[in-house]
Amino acid sequence: METFIPRGCITGPILPSFVLREKLSPGAKMLYALLCDHASDKDHCWPSHKYLAQEMGYSVSSIKNWLGELTNARLLTIHRTAYRSSTYVLLRPRAGAASTASAVPVRKETNFGYPQAKFGYRNNFRKSLEKYPPCPPTAERHRSSRLREKGPKGGDFIALNAAFEKLWAAYPRKEAKELARSVWHRLCRQGEIPGLDVLIAALEKFRASAMWLKEHGRFVPQLVNWLRGRRWLDETPEASASPEAESAMTPEKAEQVQRCMKRLEEHHQADPTLEAARPAFEAFLSRFADGQRKRGPAWGLWSLLHRQGKAPCEDEADTDMEVLTFLKSWSLNTVGGQ
User: What is the DSSP letter of 209?
Assistant: First the structure.
C-alpha cells in the first residue's frame, strides 16, 4: 500500500493551529484559512463574497455570517469601499490564543491606495498556471465570438433600420411599431431572419388570404407578433375568393334570399290601423315638453296601448310628467290594474 507524506506536498489553504482553539464554527475556521491563502505575503486581500462562496462550496449568506464571526473574534477587520470588493485585513491574534503565531510578521500600516500590478497575487499562481493550464475554447465560445464579430456596426444598424421601415410600410396593421422594431433588430443580430424580399413576398401572400381580409382585417396580427412567431415560415395561406365567385349564387341560395326578403317585408309592412291613429298620437305628444326628443320610445308604448284599446288621448295627458313616465304610469294603472 502506497503511503503519503503531507509535509512539502500540500498546497492551498492551511488552517493555523491557533484558530483551532478559537470558539468559532468550522465554516469560519475554513474561511480564515482561505483568506490567509489569498493574502499570502500581505496582511490583506479582497476576494468577493461570490468568489469565496464558489471556492468553499457554500452560499453567500454563509460567507457573510462567517465573516461576522471572524470580526467578532478580532481576527479580521473589514474595510468597505464603493465600486469594488471589501478589503479584509488580518489582525494579529491575541497573546493567549496565538502561542504558535508569534513568528507571524506584523505590518504597522496598510496602504489601500490604487493597487499595483502584483497587488494581491498569490505566490503559487504561476506554478498553478503551469501545472493546470486553462482549458481550450469550446465550440460554443467560438460561436459566440463569431456572433460578436458579425454584430451590426453603425452602418449596419442604419441599413437594418431602413429595411424595417420598408417592411412597416408594407404591413397592413400599424400598431406597436417600436416593439416590432426591437424584435426586428434582435432577430437580425441573431441571424434568424431572412432577407427583406423574402418577407415582402410572404407578406403579400398573407395579405391576399381570406383570414386577413375577413371582417376588414380584424384577424391581422401585429407586426411584432408576426416577427416574434416567425410567421413567414407558415404554410402559404389560401387566397380569398374573387368577387365573381362570391357573387355567383346557386338556385337554392337565391330561394333562401327571396324567403328572407319576403319575411322582412311582411314584418315592416305598415299597419293601417296604426297609421290612422297617428294624428291622435301627434296631438297627444304635442302636450309634452320632451315629446319630440322621445318620439320613438313614446310611439312604441302608445301604439302598444292602442292595440289593446287603452291608449290615452290628448285631454288625458298629464303635462307635469315626462311623456315616457306618464305612459308607463298609465299602462300600470289601466292594463296592469285589470
Answer: B
H or E stretch at 269: none
Q: What is the pLDDT of residues 112-124, one digit of tens each?
A: 444 444 444 445 5
Cα 330 to chain centroid distance, Å, stands at: 60
Domain assignment present for 279:
yes
What 3-state DSSP class applies to 83? Answer: coil
Q: What is the DSSP string of 279-300?
A: HHHHHHHTTSTTTTTTHHHHHH
Which residue matches cell numbers 491557533?
Answer: 18
3-state helix, strand, coil in the chain (%, to 5): 55, 5, 45
Domain final residue pick, 202, 233, 264: 233
DSSP 8-state symbol, 135: P
69 part of a folded domain: yes
The angle subtended at Cα 56 by Cα 53 and Cα 57, nearest 5°, is 75
What is the Cα–Cα distance from 172 to 205, expressed in whole angstroms?
12
Q: How many domains does the chain have?
A: 3
Q: Which three cell numbers stand for residue 269?
A: 309592412
pLDDT digits 0-9 by tens, 54-113: 988 899 899 989 899 998 988 889 888 766 778 889 888 876 554 444 444 445 445 544
Q: What are the tens digits of pLDDT across the range 254-280?
A: 787 777 777 766 665 667 777 788 888
What are the backbone angles phi and psi of residue 145, rounded to the nearest 5°?
Answer: -65, -35
Position of cell 380584424? 218
Domain span holding position 282: 272-336
